[in-house]
Design a protein that fits this description.
single chain, about 240 residues, four-stranded antiparallel beta sheet, two-stranded antiparallel sheet
Amino acid sequence: MLASKNLPKPIRGDGDVLQWVQVLCSELAVRLLEARETGTVWPKTIALHTRQAGDGATRSKQSHFPFVRNLTREVIVTAVMKLWKELHGTDAERAANPNVPNMKIINIAVSFNGVEALEQGQRGIEGFLGRERTHASTSTDHVTIPAVKEEPNEAEKMDYLCHTCKKTLTVPVERDDPEEIRSAKLESLKAEHEDYHFAQRLSRQDVVVLGGAKRRTSPGGQAAPKKKKRKEENITSYFQKK
């Protein structure tokens, strides 16, 4: 399992190598994780390969790649950078050695070797850890966590005193709310409370003033009709006089 890169700009120092190592290790991590989806496979060793400009030979360094349950790119990067130091040393070490030629690496590769099914002991450990994780997650389904009652934070509320009913009303605010947001929340609370008192006054009002005289309102809000004049009685009295 190999990931290789021909570099458009040669590596000339330690500061140039990490970005390319991360690219190659990302590719290997994806490929190994995909292979593990179909079986419990794992590489025996990991190797770093580099080639200098003008040099046909490739330099390589490999080491044992220990098993880890959670494979990530950084796990591979750590192993490769250790191989890089063993293979090429550091910038300071190369500068102190006059026999070391200037670095100009034009190709870098990382490989997994001996990728095969895990041995019986490793499969057993991985399976055991998987069962333990499943059992733990199942057990937590039956655990009831009591709710924590949070005490009100005095710094996170604003008060408003109603002069009509003498009640103090509270509106919650966030700590990072700007002043205009806080004022808007308080004004909204004040307007809602004043609407409440207005509705109460309407419900208690049972008379309205029309034309300077009081008239009782009907249940539907319409003024009760005036009593008709006794017109018929006036006509009868007129004929009786005649």
